[in-house]
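Possible race condition, two jobs.
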Amino acid sequence: MSSFWDALGGAFGLVVALDPDLMEIIGLSMQVTLTAVLFACLIGLPLGAAVGTFHFPGRSLVAVILNALMGLPPVVVGLLVYLLLSASGPLAPLRLLYTPAAMVIAQVILVTPIVAALTRQVIEDLNREYSEQFASMGVGRLDRMTAMLWDARYSLLTVALAGFGRAVAEVGAVIIVGGNINHVTRVMTTTIALETSKGNLQLALALGVILLLIAFAVNSCVMALRASAVRAAYA
């Protein structure tokens, strides 16, 4: 029991002292995660909005596929990206394997279906609610989609935060394509797995505390955004 408390005390000491190795790992984690979420939103928001707004053959199938891809196994995504970027893969000339860029690619593949599927549901509900008003005003579908994206901005920020929460906690895919190389591709989740296996519980616990704080901050932001959306709706 004393070793547990010693490890916990050492972990908080690393956090308070802003240990350089700890800060480097956290910084790379945030860089990879935020970049992946940005690209996932650039792809997923318009894709989900288009599926939620336009009617076309196979629309229901696309919606089903997006929902199914929300549950993509991370290790499978990591394996596919690894095969694409490996020396025998079609993208080998890019030399991205075992780099932060490869980790971003894997996270984008994992997060984009989540953003797209949740966006589709939000926009589809709004489209159903405002369809008569749009029709009476003769609003085109593209303008309709743009208007709904703006009207749903608070909900879509929540969608983006959900994607961030998924990305920041990812370990399976990023460890396959990143290799968990010290000072190169070592992020919080992969470091926790490695340091725990080595018995270095201080660093693992310190990073675990940071991840918990990030999860708390993300959930607080989601609740604040929902409250803002409710206030805006009744303003």
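Job #2 (started ~2 s after job #1):
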Amino acid sequence: MRVLAALSGGVDSAVAAARAVDAGHEVVAVHLALASASPSATPGRARGCCTIEDSRDARRAADVLGIPFYVWDLSERFGRDVVDDFVAEYAAGRTPNPCVRCNQKVKFAALADRALALGFDAVATGHYARIVEGAEAVTGTRELHRSHDLAKDQSYVLAVLPPHRLATALFPLGTAATKDEVRAEAAARGLALADKPDSTDICFVPDGDTRAWLGARLPEGAREPGDVVDSSGRRVGTHDGAAGYTVGQRRGLRLGVPAADGKPRYVLSVSVAERRVVVGSAEELAVDVLSGDGAVWCGPAPQSGQRLGAQVRAHGAELPCTVEDLDDDGGVRVRLDEPARGVAPGQLLALYDGTRVVGSATLAA
């Protein structure tokens, strides 16, 4: 099989490519240039997957593996579908996940489409997730499952992939026991990036200060000052732009009126149009019904009344739930067994049946 291996410059994608080579595939490596002006990383600190250093690390890994290496410039697509979308979502008072959008629009759309057009059969990445097929597949189709290493599982950010995208995806690290095992394997293969730190920040925010980065890019209306009110409507402070806040936020509220009980207050909701941020207690953050739209099913759609697990953050806990409603327009509503806190519109709602990813939707309420 002809496989295009996406090399980010990190240890995971390098070992994934190596395993694809070991499996007997004809492997070609490609590094994606995603930023129009890639920042340099701070020495010793991982900044993301868009730096010049990452490109060089990817090339060196390909040299060690003895596979062809190319750089593809997808910065225009990345800027439009990930960066601009990120700003627009915050401007609308929602909290997006750019990694989800990058997988959906760039790595498993723009990249995959170009790979298939060039005659490749599959795209391999360093994501920690598993593809299950054949007799082991419960639904009779190619299924996306959680990684064996649950601490590193990345199936959440892949839950936006429909069946035709999963059909050409390879995740060689899905069977890895631990991240330490992957690092040890990289060292044994002579890959110099075996000890390279994981990237944890938003790759297109060079200094990690997302609030300041957004402040320079949000439209003027989203940066207009307004009131911070409590759940009764009482004014307790002011803000310099509602779009900079997210549901569940505790720090940086600058409230001038303390809570009656003296306990911390959190952002309950954000309305950019009304220039209002509502704050309240931790108890008021609790929700037990989640509604999403734009549903994408990785296989057969669930049924009303079906028991599933819900996940609303990349590294959040799985929450037992029951599917209450589905509609033909991609809407889904689930009821949680126990209330969850800090769930924000714009986040991804991923649904699981055991380790199998059923699908996802964008939280609307």
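The first helix runs from residue 11 to 22.
Logs attached separately.
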